[in-house]
């Protein structure tokens, strides 16, 4: 598939691969953690800012359907993930629930990578997607935690606080608000910092993420084949459904593909933090390895091009 | 004028920052010092992977408070979290600086 | 006032507010201190560079009046601040002197924010202002320390060394010199790094400053209402005088407004360091809270638009 | 071959970096190690706010030198600055590495 | 329940990171904690100049293992590298966390 | 010489001088080490990326001669350096070999500074130079270590691993590969981050390097005059030969000058790390002081303009 190679041979994806290689050949390359944190602050805020501007130009009525769909899928995907993890993955209840929380939530970097891939492929997209990203992040985590039936007031509340005030949602929502309040003209004044260099920063960020993912990949052996299969199946399954629904409710093809990548993705920043607090007995060796070591690279390399192709096909289908 | 007190050192995932500070306060700590640390331990997960580096707490306490805090850390967190802790005997001057309720021996 | 809203609804000001909110809702957002320091190095050096280029294009004769005025105000404002702090603020001599040193010196970030606000409002400015900034930073601190009559050779000398070799003045003066030596053409080669993204970096910087200021605001209760009133009155008073003098000696209206913001501002980087060394018994809970928790937000939100308005009015007054 | 010496640990605002190094040198330190730390203590001001993080000095000294240095730190800085310090007994090998003038006990 | 163990602290150039971790493992360490540190010592070269800051290893070991590790560090690295190391006595709870082969005294 | 002043009065060189001044007046200016490391990652990766794109547009046949010349000079310069260090510098075998490894290898920052200087002087250059840089880095170190006859299997192997998997070579080669694979069009998408701000980042980087070099310069007294002379002579000697050979095999004049600067430069990142591992008894006070305190500033200020002049003269010589 041409689109696949096209997607794989890009600075962003190759930087991720380079990061993995760095770990495999045991290079002493290391991105200082302050730089890594600085980059994630930059990326999240910038994505919010861009989304906020788009939002300020989108009529509220146009948002109703996408928001409803996002909430619905945000509640269904953790249930689906829980079911597959218990049935096919043979996980215990707590571990399955923890993993479900991750697949119910969303990975901002997958979202960003999908945006870039769509931009490259030239098909039209929707500006309001970052708002959906913020909405999608929370319900999956709540439902995942509820599935563990460990909703002792304290843990659950603490975990929710963590998610909602957590820096990833905070920065994105903050950026959204600022972008929406300021509008295009004023955001233009900070564009040379937040917009133009964005993809280059993403490139360095994925270099680091590749290194982290590589150390996760090492843990795959102990994770078991069944879980690895699920780590590829679930994003494809959830993502395809979401892409189809997106096209169905009238998103632009590019928008639907990005939406698919979002719904298909598994969180590896917000969800782990929340799960670690509310379900400390769940094994990070399972949920982190799956989300960061399997599902993220899967989406980055195979998932996103599939969703783009699918969205294009479905969008053109009814036209003739 | 030198007074013997205890230094409690706790190395833990960044996640437990707030709970640890609270725990130390409950045991009478008047302050604490935090440094960022990397580390490897018995658990597979290196905290750094996904939530920034480990935190290394140091807190000067009365010997009894340090022991009690160490016990509580061990009971509440050792099982499910990446935590390690130890107590050292140290000497300070003007121990009033450290006495909120327990160490009036200066 | 339209100008006020115009000024408040900007990415830079809103980022400051976002930072304050982050602290209030107790988000775990944190800008790594390496990033924060990196940004301040960048901002100070860049402002110097830009000023240096402007300086290289300004005839020396044009600088005499502004420099003289800056020195005069740099000596008068600490005296005025000391008087108000003792009389109305009821502070002891040492604390009043320490605070006077802060109001006599200048806040580089307020200066930068004023520049951006003036640029946005489209009125003409002067290029030599960064040179004045460097000149204004020192005398206020010296006079403040002298007011405490604690000029034991050692402490005073150490404190002065600290100010003059301190990184904020060093970087700005260094940037000025490099900018003046290289001129526009050569500085253009580094403009995509130092000039274009400047305002975006400032935006992130203010996010952090908002967080710091928020923790200062919490200390307001113990500071007392009288001091809070002074923290708003002094910048308005000093700034209005400076703006008027600026117009009077022939600065462009934008330049006079920026000059007003400079003179009205209170230092929270150079002065605290110097005061901490020379007057360790003065209470940071007073001088830091006032300069960072009251005066900086006041200038950012209310002061700057006022000075712009004032400068415009005064500039146009004699014309007809 | 193990020699008992003292480890002096000082946590202080970044501002006091040079004075502290000088103080340690005066007490015969042949070296020191500095880590950046955050912290909370009895004073309201968190150093980090405006001048970067706290500094945490570690210095191996002879027991007498460590005591003397601790005393001086306490006398000169405890009142007006954010400083805390303590002494621990440690063992080293080849203590010649640490003797500039005072610890010839290797 | 408190068990006495030893805390070995090593401050060294970043260059020796891997060899040090290996050395600690060989002496039975089940983990270690690393903080970044600056420092000055008897050698002219400040490691920071060209390869990032010093590393400060902390490792809880059985007293015998700590002594042995300290000896090996001293023998292998003291001459040519910027290294310093010391041992402190500490108390831990649940020492099982630290016993890979040597400290079964819990 | 006009070219010399032209080269010296540039933001990049002046930033280096500013860094030295910062140390001399004992300013508290400090670039956080995370920022410094972040900048070096950025610079090395960006230089690779740019080179990779150029490489993808260069026919392989055109590379044979330059590659051969690079390898030859990479083997000869350490021998020449060893000889001079023993004979004129009166160094012992181990110290001479250690220093030879540094002069045999290459300084990426000198290379970058040369590129910028050539760009400024407007003469044509060659795109494939970064590939030569990567090739030149290794042989000098190997030969240097062999010269010490300390090739105990362990140390040597460990040292070589260190060089080849070391982050500086890894990032540059990684960038090269990504640039070559992606080609101009796709690299353009990250150009606003990796290409446009490059020189500005270099400027800040040299500020830090100036500070580091200044503390090295202090050690010059104990190093001895003979070694300082060699620290100036060797780069001029090696660099002039390399420039001449470069012109001779048909490089563009700018390319030959950059090539001269490369070959003349002494490594201070890769080589010290390798030497420290394989020859721990060699004195860093000698090799680091020479490479960073003498040869680097020499090349930056005097060497590069000389090589440019030389390359221009030689290139024009045979034309008429
Ligand atoms: N033996 C040890 N000595 C020093 N630090 C340790 C040791 N074991 C574990 N740690 C630290 O404690 C953290 C958590 O350990 P663990 O819970 O065993 O994974 C690690 O990341 C290390 O920083
Ligand atoms: N009880 C304590 N244990 C450990 N560190 C402390 C303690 N009290 C204060 N500190 C540290 O010492 C610094 C200054 O304390 P203070 O002078 O009490 O504000 C704080 O920022 C902490 O880093
Ligand atoms: N007396 C000391 N106390 C604490 N740390 C030291 C001492 N001497 C040296 N160091 C640390 O050990 C490192 C190497 O020391 P040296 O090998 O003496 O250069 C230094 O960079 C310091 O971080
Ligand atoms: Na999802
Ligand atoms: Na002022
Ligand atoms: Na060379």
From TrEMBL, chains A, C, F:
Domain of life according to the entry: Bacteria
A Pfam family per the record: Sbt_1
Alphabetically ordered keywords of this record: Membrane, Transmembrane, Transmembrane helix
Transmembrane segments: 6-25, 34-51, 63-84, 127-148, 169-187, 193-215, 227-251, 257-279, 286-308
Keyword Cytoplasm set for record: no
The protein, known as: Sodium-dependent bicarbonate transport family permease
TrEMBL record, chains B, D, E:
Highest classification ranks of the organism: Bacteria, Pseudomonadati, Verrucomicrobiota, Verrucomicrobiia, Verrucomicrobiales
Protein's name according to its UniProt entry: Uncharacterized protein
GO biological process: regulation of nitrogen utilization
Organism of this sequence: Haloferula rosea
Domain of life from the UniProt record: Bacteria
GO terms assigned for molecular function: enzyme regulator activity
């Amino acid at each position: 598939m041409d689109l696949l190679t096209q997607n794989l041979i890009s600075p962003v994806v190759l930087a991720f691969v380079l990061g993995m290689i760095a770990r495999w050949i045991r290079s002493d390359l290391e991105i200082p953690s302050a730089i890594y944190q600085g980059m994630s602050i930059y990326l999240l805020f910038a994505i919010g800012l861009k989304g906020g501007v788009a939002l300020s130009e989108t009529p509220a009525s146009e948002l109703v359907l996408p928001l409803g769909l996002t909430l619905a899928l945000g509640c269904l995907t953790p249930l689906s993930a829980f079911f597959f993890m218990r049935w096919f993955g043979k996980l215990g209840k707590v571990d399955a629930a923890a993993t479900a929380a991750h697949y119910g939530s969303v990975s901002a970097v997958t979202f960003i990578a999908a945006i870039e891939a769509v931009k490259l492929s030239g098909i039209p997209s929707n500006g309001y997607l970052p708002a959906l990203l913020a909405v999608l992040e929370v319900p999956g985590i709540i439902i995942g935690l509820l599935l563990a039936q460990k909703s002792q007031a304290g843990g659950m509340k603490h975990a929710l606080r963590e998610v909602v005030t957590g820096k990833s949602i905070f920065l994105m929502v903050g950026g959204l608000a600022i972008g929406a309040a300021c509008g295009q003209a004023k955001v233009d004044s900070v564009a040379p910092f937040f917009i133009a260099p964005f993809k280059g920063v993403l490139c360095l960020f994925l270099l680091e993420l590749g290194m982290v993912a590589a150390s996760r990949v090492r843990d795959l052996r102990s994770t078991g084949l069944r879980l690895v299969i699920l780590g590829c199946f679930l994003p494809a399954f959830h993502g395809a459904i979401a892409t189809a629904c997106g096209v169905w409710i009238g998103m632009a093809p590019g928008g639907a593909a990005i939406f698919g990548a979002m719904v298909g993705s598994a969180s590896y920043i917000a969800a782990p933090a929340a799960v670690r607090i509310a379900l400390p007995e769940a094994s990070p060796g399972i949920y982190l390895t799956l989300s960061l070591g399997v599902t993220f690279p899967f989406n980055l390399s195979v998932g996103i091009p599939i969703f783009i192709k699918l969205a294009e096909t479905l969008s053109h289908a009814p036209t003739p | 004028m030198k007074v013997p007190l205890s230094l409690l050192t706790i190395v833990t995932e960044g996640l437990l920052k707030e709970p640890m500070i609270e725990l130390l306060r409950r045991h009478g700590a008047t302050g604490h010092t935090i440094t960022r640390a990397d580390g490897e331990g018995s658990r597979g997960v290196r905290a750094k992977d996904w939530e920034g580096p480990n935190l290394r707490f140091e807190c000067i306490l009365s010997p009894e408070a340090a022991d009690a805090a160490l016990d509580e850390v061990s009971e509440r967190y050792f099982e499910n979290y990446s935590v390690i802790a130890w107590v050292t005997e140290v000497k300070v001057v003007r121990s009033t600086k450290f006495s909120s309720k327990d160490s009036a021996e200066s």
